[in-house]
Specification:
D-Maltodextrin-Binding Protein, domain 2; 321 residues; 2 domains; alpha/beta
């Protein structure tokens, strides 16, 4: 009986291996320790890629530039980027397409003992900004300050641009008065008692934008998607299914704890909750994206969006769902 059970288990494992090896492969470049790996690991662990007709091969890269070079040279099929990058590329006849991954954005946070309560209280403060002068959250916060109070945050404050981990440490050490960082570092700060002065999703509505517009997504060449539509559809479907599982089941997060590098249970729970808040709607609204694009052009000082760049609906992969 035991031998029969072991034999059956071996057959199942071998069958699964054969299935994966016969399916077409989708190579996807992702930061080795990036938060997108949480979804990708879930897809692989639950074999959602195989269920949707492909074998997902995750290629670890060191940074955004490395992933860009990889897709430009056809070393990978898919990268993680934003649709503004896609629009800029399309203006140079480099036709990429975008399918949504996350609507998570940053916030401006201060320490638990800070006296800063509003944007008006920031005058003369040191503000740490991850992503540089063209960080999308920073642009939206600047637009909010100008609309609400007529303030020029860039002119009246000391701006400290740096890598997300460095700004995270500086915020904890009190070396900066406020910080705009990537969402997962903000979640870790929140777990340490930091509070949000400005939540970008909230003020986006005030600026006439939709809080549900996803900026980050999976990006691939349009010609690849045209030739491999079933694979592009399969990737989108696997992504949605992984999100559905991670949204509904706390148990699905247990295998991800090591990847998440949460130092406390509170930090783990905060990271999980923040990730879930970033899950986009199934339907992508082009008009909302256009409104955000126009705002980014107006307040991005010509550095984020190239002068000849326009947003076209072809930038967004139309999944049948």
């Amino acid at each position: 009986m035991f031998f029969r059970f072991v034999s059956m288990a071996c057959v199942l494992v071998f069958s699964s291996f054969c299935l994966a090896s016969t399916l077409p492969t989708v190579k996807l470049a992702a930061l080795k320790f990036g938060t997108v790996k949480w979804e990708l690991e879930t897809i692989k662990r639950l074999r959602l890629d195989e269920k949707n007709g492909f074998n997902l091969e995750v290629v670890d890269v060191a940074g955004k530039q490395a992933s860009t070079l990889a897709i430009q040279n056809d070393a990978v099929d898919v990268i993680v980027s934003d649709w503004i990058w896609v629009a800029n590329q399309r203006s140079e006849d480099k036709n990429y397409q975008f399918t949504p991954y996350s609507k998570a954005v940053g916030s401006l946070m201060v320490g638990p003992k800070s006296s800063v309560k509003s944007l008006e209280d920031l005058k003369g403060k040191r503000i740490g900004i991850a992503g540089g002068p063209v960080d999308k959250s920073w642009i939206i916060i600047q637009a909010t300050a100008k609309k609400r109070h007529g303030l020029d945050l860039a002119a009246q404050n000391e701006l400290v641009f740096g890598a997300p981990p460095l700004l995270f440490k500086q915020a904890i050490a009190g070396e900066i008065d406020a910080v705009i960082n990537f969402w997962h570092f903000l979640a870790k700060l929140e777990a340490k008692g930091f509070r949000r002065v400005v939540d970008v999703q909230d003020v986006a509505v005030e600026l006439g934008l939709s809080a549900d517009t996803p900026l980050l997504g999976y990006v691939f060449k349009e010609k690849w998607a045209a030739k491999n539509r079933e694979l592009a559809e399969g990737l989108s479907a696997a992504s949605r299914e992984a999100k559905s599982i991670l949204a509904a089941k706390d148990s699905a997060w247990e295998p991800l704890k090591k990847l998440m590098k949460a130092k406390t249970d509170k930090e783990f729970v905060t990271l999980r909750a923040s990730w879930r808040q970033g899950i986009p709607n199934d339907k992508f609204d082009f008009a909302s994206a256009q409104a955000m694009f126009d705002l980014m052009r107006t307040y991005g000082d010509g550095k984020l969006i190239k002068s000849k760049t326009e947003l076209d609906e072809g930038a967004f992969f139309a999944s049948k769902q």
